[in-house]
Write a structure and sequence with these properties.
It is built from 27 helices and 23 strands. Strands 15, 16, 17, 18, 19, 20, 21, 22 and 23 form a nine-stranded mixed sheet that branches. The longest helix has 25 residues. Strand 15 and strand 16 form a beta hairpin. The structure holds phosphoenolpyruvate (PEP) and magnesium ion. The site of phosphoenolpyruvate has 10 residues, from strand 17 and helix 22. The site of phosphoenolpyruvate (PEP) has 10 residues, from strand 17 and helix 22.
């Protein structure tokens, strides 16, 4: 960078700093700034366009264009050169602007007299705030150094905009973070709730973007980077139990922390008048913009790493920790980029809703949110930069939509939705102790799925007859070390006690696939869902399985015990698992410990192959529980974690229901108890169809027991069956439409 521009831009920033320090109303400040830039850059025009709303840019200050056009001239995102800079977040530097692609003539500004145009985006952490433009009469392209100087100024403008420096009365800007914003994410847990934002991590606020002592700032940056490097090194050398993924991430961190070009760019920013934190943020903004535009997954990952690293560096420089220090507001709705299950458990059930920028339907945090029936929306991009602690927020988990700072009309509509939800809850509560008895006199057993001790109180509230699936892996997932047998046994005993004598089907550890224990050596597998998971791990590493079975037997202490093995694919696997249990029982007997009675041992049917197992399998098991989530992904070869394919195939498709009916028949022939415990059991329409196919026992999330029972009590299964048969006779591929029509007419 030539010395001239370096000092020019520093001088400009210095003048900017003085101008801003003088105070004044927002508009006054903006006017001063455009004047300063125009004179420093020796251009006839300098203008600042800022977003009025997500789609509209407004000319907010100008030196050189017609004064009357300020706050009048507006452009849509993408419209004209200014709109294009805002949309693409890229600089446009044109010597002959009127002939450049996208040029839009704005007569009110007198723009046609200016030939050259340079527009740079005003953005903060990937969030577009506006455009800074300089124009001049002579047809010249602005030099790389001049563009750079403008970018540095734009960065300062972004910080000042964020801090509300341009807020004022009348036509001036309204403060940021005040307008309603709608986020469209994905559904992870249904339900609706209204509350106030509680940020999981504090946003770093840079209050001093301009420096007057570059040497001091350079030293601050170097010290902070040194601290960052040593903390990453310490993490890498100190933690031997990291998974390959974690190791990769930290290796990438190390790579960035030692990256010379990253450092050089920040040093140049500082030489040009930015403070160390502003320089870090400028680079971070750039990385975020690239992140938003990167299609390549690997590239996105790396840019994400850089973003995390910048955050760490900013926290070192500003001394601002992660803790927001804010009190939890009433009806807190947690807003975070992502969150682990342990952190979520720390917040406990007081949360009314959760909104994540990232996350996935199968993540452990999602499992916890589902267990607690807290509405959860994931993939709500940009919410952590927009939301402030305490902001009113509405989470619509049914639609995957989040309204931040909603206006009154949205609030009113949402209140109606919540009222309907409350009325429905009252209806469900009124039938809580009634049986799930259909109009045709068929009685179903409705059970709930659980995984934590904290879930057990829902037995009472939901009216479930027991726990049809207790996912024991959650206890393993939320710890940082392998639980001891005595810990597990004590925990299972408390779970049994909390059930008040209602039955609980304990599923042995179902790890692997997306459930990776933080303290176990991870396996790199091309297809983890079809890999070394569940009972396969249990049989290959019987130590853990035996320890868990022992803990269960001891917890039962001579009382009833139901154990089910996950992901059984072959009769031989079931036999081997059962043999492990028998070994444990024999040992306990020798030790003089009481054996469980009655003891029920079953298998989860989660792969199509088990449906075709020999008759002996159906006779040997005490019960079978269909794990529809996994079964469906293997039946349709559609990954349950992949948003693109997971909803592509219908549960009520003829082929899938035909398969399930075969399983129903084989169980009936063998006299074996059968239940269904996948997510579909908790969807009323699906539950009714499963009942019409012969299922008499369904296990679901506690919040689903009411709605499912309510519908079952109003239908006649022979009529549902007839509607399904009609659909097949007509050649429909799915029974969904026919059964929906029947329900609509009948209810
Ligand atoms: C299933 O696969 O349907 C099931 C209940 O198990 P999980 O969702 O825990 O894999
Ligand atoms: Mg499963």
């Amino acid at each position: 960078m030539p010395e001239r521009v370096e000092s020019e831009s520093r001088k400009l920033l210095e003048r900017l700093r003085h101008a801003l320090a003088e105070g004044g109303e927002g508009q006054e400040r903006l006017d001063k700034i455009v004047g300063l830039i125009a004179s420093s850059m020796q251009t006839e025009v300098c203008s600042i366009y800022l977003f009025r709303d997500n789609e509209t840019l407004e000319l907010c200050a100008t030196q050189g264009l017609a004064e009357e056009s300020v706050h009048k001239t507006r452009l849509r995102l993408g419209e004209g050169l200014v709109g294009r800079v805002a949309r693409t977040r890229r600089v446009i530097n044109a010597a002959d602007a009127p002939s450049a692609r996208g040029f839009r003539y704005m007569p009110e500004t007198g723009e046609e007299r200016y030939s050259s145009f340079c527009g740079v985006p005003i953005q903060r952490l990937g969030d577009a705030l506006g455009v800074l433009v300089v124009q001049s009469k002579d047809a010249r392209e602005f030099s790389a150094d001049e563009v750079y100087a403008l970018e540095v100024v734009a960065m300062v403008l972004a910080e000042m905009t964020e801090l509300g420096a341009f807020v004022g009365e009348g036509a001036a800007l309204s403060a940021r973070h005040q307008n309603p914003v709608l986020f469209r994410g994905s559904i992870a847990q249904e339900g609706a709730s209204s509350g106030n934002v509680f940020l999981h991590e504090a946003r770093v606020v840079v209050t001093n973007p301009i420096s007057d002592d570059p040497d001091l700032e350079l030293q601050r940056l170097r010290d902070a980077v040194e601290e960052l490097r040593s903390s990453v090194d310490a993490l890498l050398s100190g933690n031997r139990q990291m998974t390959t993924d974690q190791l990769e991430i930290f290796e990438a961190y190390r790579m960035f922390a030692n990256s010379r070009s990253w450092m050089r760019r920040m040093e140049a920013d500082i030489s040009n008048g930015l403070t160390a934190e502003a320089a870090v943020e400028k680079e971070q903004s750039l990385a975020r913009t690239r992140l938003n535009q990167a299609g390549d997954a690997y590239m996105r990952e790396r840019l994400n790493d850089l973003d995390d690293l910048s955050n760490r560096l900013l926290r070192i420089l500003t001394g601002q920790g992660k803790d927001t220090g804010a009190d939890m507001p009433d009806n807190p709705i947690l807003v975070a980029r992502n969150i682990g299950p342990g952190e979520l458990l720390d917040y406990g059930k007081k949360l009314r809703g959760i909104v994540l920028e990232e996350g996935s339907v199968g993540s452990h945090a999602t499992v916890v949110a589902r267990a607690w029936a807290i509405p959860l929306v994931i993939n709500a991009k940009g919410i952590t930069t927009e939301a402030l602690n305490g902001d009113p927020i509405l989470v619509d988990g049914d639609q995957g939509v989040v309204h931040l700072r909603p206006d009154e009309a949205v609030h009113a509509a949402f209140r109606d939705k919540l009222a309907m939800q409350t009325r429905a809850q009252e209806r469900y509560a009124s039938i809580r102790d009634e049986p799930a008895l259909t109009q045709c006199g068929t009685k179903l057993g409705l059970y709930m799925n659980a995984g934590l001790l904290a879930d057990l109180p829902s037995l009472e509230g939901s009216g479930a007859l027991g726990v049809g699936l207790f996912r024991t892996e959650l206890q393993f997932l939320i710890r940082s070390h392998m639980p001891k047998r005595s810990e597990l046994s004590a925990l299972y005993a408390r779970v049994m006690k909390a059930s008040g004598g209602k039955p609980i089907a304990f599923r042995t550890l179902d790890i692997g696939s997306d459930k990776v224990l933080p303290y176990m050596k991870p396996n790199d597998e091309p297809n983890p869902a079809m890999g070394w998971r569940a009972i396969r791990v249990g049989l290959d590493k019987p130590g853990i399985l035996r320890m868990q079975l022992q803990a269960l037997v001891r917890a039962a202490n001579g009382g009833p015990l139901t154990v089910m093995f996950p992901f059984i694919t072959l009769l031989s696997e079931y036999r081997a698992a059962r043999a492990e249990l028998d070994k444990v029982l024999a040992r306990e007997k020798i030790l003089g410990n009481p054996l469980p009675a009655p003891l029920n041992v079953g298998a989860m049917l989660e792969t199509p192959s088990l449906g075709f197992a020999p008759d002996a399998f159906f006779k040997e098991v005490d019960f079978i529980s269909v794990g529809g989530n996994d079964l469906k992904q293997f039946f349709y070869a559609a990954d349950r974690e992949n948003e693109r394919v997971r909803r592509r195939y219908d549960t009520l498709n003829h082929s899938f229901l035909t398969f399930l009916q075969m399983v129903v028949k084989r169980c009936a022939d063998a006299g074996t108890h059968l239940s269904f415990c996948g997510e579909d059991a908790g969807r009323p329409l699906e539950a009714v169809c499963l009942a019409a196919c012969g299922f008499r026992s369904l296990s679901m999330r506690p919040a689903s027991v009411g709605p499912v029972k309510h519908l079952l009590r109003r239908v006649d299964l022979t009529e549902v069956r007839a509607a399904m048969d009609d659909a097949w006779a007509k050649g429909d591929l799915s029974a969904r439409d026919a059964v929906s029509r029947y329900l609509k007419n009948r209810l």
